[in-house]
């Protein structure tokens, strides 16, 4: 593809994306295709000769769009938002166009230093302590998601707990145990399997009435393991659990971790960015005093396209000691000087993309005030939705909702609530998800998409209200 061809097709692609964003509200949020239908429309064999780019765009309209669930639809209220804002999408083009491989400072100085800067910016915006910044001896790194952040935090914790033996001899079977809330993200269990600890090393700690981790139950579990000769290696607290948005009391969990010399990782994938707003900075209470690592996902609520997790470590040496492998072909004078960061030692792959450009573009376009406005609007809309639910005696709100996630249910059997969810989603106008709260089936709304406004939240409530009596049937 020549530069001239790239210009022509590039303009067509930007126009296509802009047109898609303008029309996405008119599409059903959830795709109606069945298993195998997308593949059946595609040729079984690749083309022998090249095809015009226009043919690809035509297939985007003919096959990909009808076969997609539209995460950028303003009525998408399921799971968590996926922020593909304009500046973030344009930055993706810049990333692809530059095509740099940022494994070493030497291979991409701008990639490395911009990432350090942008993550220090974000640390300041959400009130993280200086020890999580490069100036403070720690530092941040962009991972693909919170699950990977959990994994590298666990590797660093095991390296510290074993005094360096894990990097050399591996994980001693049956020795190390880790702890998290029963409400925590499932990625934590994956991390224990990958490291070789296995699922049996996890202690799922009971929760309090507000679904946050119980520090007393945590201490009891850790004391029991320590008395049995096992080593408590890591505790993962969550700021905004996947299911209900519960916020673990880091300020109370931290002292327990200190007592047993356990690493404290804080998974703030969803809610951490809320701390940009001074009135919501309480979500990070205790982090400055006790956390060893911390991760939050701008790709959820901060208008930054997938994949972007901002992962911070107070002691970066614990991670680089376990992950650094330096073959001769990567040796260079900058690395040997000790004056640079080589991010390949902060992650599982060797290669890495210039992801920091996305958050750089987002912060520069919206500014801190614009990002705060987005978060505040989402919280306000969620509180309005909760107020509608609470005012209707047919429904119950099932969990605290200080931010933008609401879990609720119709005062009816689980099968009726499932039918309500299916009926509302079948309209194509909104998409809600579900979870289980204290053993009860719950409908779940998560607000924060780029295009979602209060009128779309109101549409969701209107549909729920209209369908509630229909699915419940006569009394």
From TrEMBL:
InterPro entries: Aromatic_deC, PyrdxlP-dep_de-COase, PyrdxlP-dep_Trfase, PyrdxlP-dep_Trfase_major, PyrdxlP-dep_Trfase_small. Pfam families: Pyridoxal_deC. The keyword Lipid biosynthesis does not apply. Keywords: Decarboxylase, Lyase, Pyridoxal phosphate. This is Aromatic-L-amino-acid decarboxylase. One of its GO terms (biological process) is carboxylic acid metabolic process. Belongs to the group II decarboxylase family. The modification N6-(pyridoxal phosphate)lysine is found at residue 300. It comes from Nocardia ignorata. Its cofactor is pyridoxal 5'-phosphate.
